[in-house]
Amino acid sequence: MTDEEIKKHKEDIDGMTREGMARLWRYAPSGHPYFNRKFPLWEHFDKRFKELGGFSPEISKGLG
């Protein structure tokens, strides 16, 4: 993954809602780049999601 691709993905992560991040966390296919620890995206996603409040019982129930 190039530096430019990483930058674009980080911008995408920064634009996601808490609910969108929770949905992606729960339903992302195996190997999704945001959760692949070989890339710096995991740390960025995790930090942002925690800043927004992470999972809550309401969000979890809403996702099914």
- The structure class reads mainly alpha
The radius of gyration is 12 Å
Poorly predicted regions are: none
Beta-sheet strand percentage? Answer: under 5%
State the oligomer: single chain
Q: What string gives the helices and strands in order?
A: HHHH
Alpha-carbon distance between the termini?
A: 33 Å
In total, how many domains does the architecture comprise? 1
DSSP helix count?
A: 4
Strand tally is 0
Describe the main β-sheet briefly.
none
The backbone outline, from C-alpha atoms, is globular
Q: Name the helicity range.
A: 55-70%
Determine the mean pLDDT: 93
List the helices and strands and how they pair.
Layout: H1 3-14, H2 18-27, H3 41-52, H4 57-63
Helix pairs in contact: 1-3
Describe the structure.
There is one protein chain. This protein has one domain (3-63). It is built from 4 helices and no strands. Helices cover 64% and strands 0% of the residues. The longest helix has 12 residues, at 3-14. The protein is globular, with a radius of gyration of 12 Å. By secondary structure, the protein is an all-alpha fold.
